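[agent] plan:
  1. take the single chain provided in the ticket
  2. run structure prediction with default settings
  3. attach structure tokens to the ticket
  4. add a short note for the reviewer (M.T.)
[agent] executing step 1
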Amino acid sequence: MATAVATPTTNGSDRRKSGRTSHRPLNFSQEIYEGSVLNSSKRKRPSAATNVQDEDEDEDEVEGEGVEDESQDDDAEDEPDEEELRERRRKQRARNAVARPAAKRARTANGVSTTLAIRSANATSKNVSKQARQKARSRPSQFQATGLYAEVFGKGLDAETAATNWQNEMENDNVAGLKDIINFILQCIGCESRIESSDIDDVDNISGKLGDILNEYGNQKEGDYPLSSKQKQFHGMKDVLVEFFKAVIHGLHNSNLMYDEPAIYDNIHIWTATMASAGFRSFRHTATVISLAMTTALTEVAKELQSSMATTKQQLDSEKKKKSANKGRISKLQEEMARDEKKLEVIDNQLRDAFDTVYIHRYRDVEEKIRVECVAAIGSWILNYRKMFLEGQYLRYIGWVMSDPYALTRLEVIRQLKALFKQKQNVPALRAFTERFRSRIVEMGARDADTTVRAETIELLDRLRNAELLEPDDIETIGQLVFDNEPKVRKAVAKFFVSNIEDLYSASVDEFDQEQFNEALPDEDETEDFDTPNKLWIKFKCLAQTLGAQQNTISRSSNKRSDTFGTEADSRYMVATQAIFNAMPELHHWEALAGYLLHDHSNITRAKNTSGLSAAVQEAYKLENGEDLILLDVLYCAAKLSLQEPVDDAKTNRTKKAKDEARQRQETAAHNLSVMIPQLHNKFGSTPQAAKVILRLHQLFDADLVDDVHDEEADHTALLDDVNKQFTAHSDADVLAEASRALRAALHHESSKEAADAKVLELWQESSQSLAALLSGKNVSGRGTLDTNALRQVVDVVARFAHLASITDCCEVLEGRMTWPKSKANQGRKESLLDVLLQLVKRGEPDDDTPRESAQLEDQLCRFALKTLSFYYRWKIVSLKSAISTNDKSRLSTGSLTNIAMRKTDLIEAILPIVSPRKPLDHVRITALLSLVDLYVLFATVRYMKPDGEIGGLDADVQANLNSLVTDLDSTTRTALMETHEKMEKRLASKSGKRNIDLPLGKAKRANKRKARTSSINNDVTTTNGHVAADEEEIDRPPEDSDDEAARTTQRRRRHPNQTSDSESDATSSDDDDTASALSDPLSGEDADPDATKAVRALAQREAKKKAILVAETSLCELTAKIVLAVLAGIVSEGNEVRKRLQLNRGKLGKSYSQVIAYLDDKKAAAKGGKKGQARPKTPVTKAATKKDTKAMVSEAMVLSDDDIEDASDEEERRDDDDPEALRERGLDDDGDIEEAESVAEDAAAAATAADDDDDDDDEIMGD
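[agent] step 2 finished; step 3 output follows
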């Protein structure tokens, strides 16, 4: 495009006093800037030509105003008032007087300057978003561009200015203007082809010309097109492009070219609609964005016309009501309304045409980005032009896209629906749509594959609920999501769930007379004591009812005996309370909730036969069976969240007064806890489930905050007495674990430490005396010598030993002499508690004579004894380290160290007979091996212990005695360890479906079994009736399926009832308890629904399978970590062989296992390879794999399923088992002991993203 170069004048007025000629800088549009080379320039001068042009424009505007005034003089009634004209002129002068920044000027090689206009901060469109204004700036990379592309992107003009310049060109030459804007679209696509003026004239040949352009485009080099490019030069290009075409449509409307010369818009629309149906993704995407932007602008114009017509109609009605109506003004207003109606009719036709030619095909395009653009566009159309688009024929397209396989498309649908339902005037028109697609919306909220989509859908459902558009079943379904596994979903459903509680509360109190109800039950603020009935009690009752309503759909956890230490996991009611805590202000009054629980509800009688309001109110807040346990969980979580407020946190900029108030609140809360906890123990302490929660409240009690309370020591002692009672009264593992944590918390506070030490010592003495009474006159080390009842009591006592040993130093207690009951059988017994525990360990040696029930108890006894001894040696090493650091010769004497070495040897000799006869995956064998490795590794740390710097070195004899404590792992233990490790590898591979792992020991055993089986078949064919038992390894089979695997196992057992494979028996011994509890059917009664029973059973099977995989991986990682520690400690004689064996399946059993093995790597190599941001070698890709069919014009149509919400199921099936997303779904990527797992997962996710980007190059299209 050629432009004229203006020559500056040199008259007298342009000369300075010095005689030099004053040259005015030229505008960018007046220079030949095509192909110019830009250099840096330091001088900035104002453009005189720009000033001249501005003055000319001002004169034109004044002249135009004069002509307009003359044309309006004929009808005095219709012209504006003088005040209105003055106001217009004043605003015009104010706009012209705005200071404009100086234009930047760059010098070129030949001295000719090129001026680039910089957008003024004030020259922004009213409709331009802040983000668009920030991104629509001049781009140095586009300075070399020409034509309209340079006007929009290269000169920094705002969208309205660029559109106005193009419109001025259109008024001079329509064909040239249309050619420029079509070539501008091609440049935005990234196409190098251009059209000529003849192509504009030949409208019927648009498809043919575009076909030629597409053929040329197919020969271009592959690459990203501007809208999808990540290059910095194209950042924010879409916003600028959309704003420009919106400004074009508004300009055509304001200048009436839209109506006087409709061919202008029709030509642009035909070209863009044709490009939107092209086979190349770049054409479809860019043209669709432009078409949708123009359609959005048309809806904005329609909205403006509607508003203008409404105003005109109001003025017309007002004028007609006047006594002396102005007929001329009425006629003028009627003409204006008729003119606007004709314009609106034109806009309506253009909107229908755009919808039918572009949107109806592109809303289901194969490209996800195009579908997202379409969904966002139709939402804005409905909001802008409700009269046309708020109809079922358009709303249905939004409903259909709810089943889109792309998560961002579904997310955009929900966001648009939220915007629609936000405006209450839209709700009546959306009722039919909601009835049609309500089930889909509820399904998306409950089971969508994307968490963000679920959260957004729940917020939409909350608005539907407020509009009374949900059924009771839908409300119940969404309410259950407060127990969901995803925190984001629970947080989103909190408001919805609290609304359910509010509705239930309203239904409970509506039947009461308001005045009498207020008298019978005061507000919470009107009561002084937390145990006085108030209105919050009914709200808490509604909360318990709502939470308890889900207990039939979510099975409760089993209360069976466990030989573990118990977990600190929150219950589902605690999880729900944490989600709704901020949405329900009543939970902040947790003291009132405690008073509500402590109230005696058993004295409340039924109010059916009484007419008093007081009795009816009491019936309204009376707790039913089981609801008190639910509210106990709620109480603990609410108190915990309320007490988490920091007091002296340096990060919070609070005043001293605010800090004092916060501390006062915490002191009051601590005092209230000290009063409530004993009362809660008295009422609920007999139930293990309730006792566990109350013991958690002990852990929240800060004894240091009650210094000002009288009888402080008595309060601490009373609270610790309650803990001791629960510790001795219950045998539940969770209760013992929580009681131990409560004692540990008391030991950490200075005010209660002394009392806690005394109570712990008291528990040791009581438990020791109980054990002495139970074992009096008995064979302590003999398996099966105790009756079942006595054996169960011994197990409970030793379990308490294990928990006590975990919280305080137990060396002195265990080494002390036991006090036996006085009897002939106990005369002369001088064993210590440590000796008794060592003898109890020997009861773990298996035999064939002990009954099964007793054998299980014996195994539990052995495991608890081993754990207690393991804690003992840990405390012993801590004590030994202290003695070495201070060079305490009394504790480092030869006799003391010899005694330690002898006890270590005795424990090893007691453990080895337990390990050898048991199967590799037996629980007792695994515990014994872990204890053995711990023992060896603990004593290996002695070689690194040295006295403090100021103290002299150790004596030679002491050093020799200490060195004798460090011994290598014996060969028997090493062999047993590796055998168990290999079995764990095989179990995890079998359950998780990982194949092709290397099992050296298994290969040797399989070879021996095949030889033995072949010999047996040759010698005894008649006995087996020609049938050979197939004892194939689990790893050679496909991944387990619950139903098929159970059927195969049952069939194999029927054929060979006495034959059980090692893998089957090992898996059974490891997982039977968990699977049995998970498969328990809560709907197995006679009246159970068969479909419900089947669904519950299938769900239980899936959960059992996931849990089995998680348990298998956890066990493998735990054992492997112990072996790695032994190798690193240098106590494995064949360390290199063990290293190689552990590395054998490093990359085949998941990221967690791989990261455990990573500790064996050389530290320098690991540090070098573990740096973040380090470039990794790219995997070579074959040419055939990267070749794309870019010349394909049209592909087969892809139909979206209306019922499939899941995201890319085919891609999930193709994902590698080590993919972090797959691990997270199976719950296998959550190992807190592995710190490096996160960075590895990020690398894997980056690789997956790169792979997905490669898939985005498919140029397919659907729907045409």
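[agent] step 4 note for reviewer: The mean pLDDT is 76.
[agent] ticket updated
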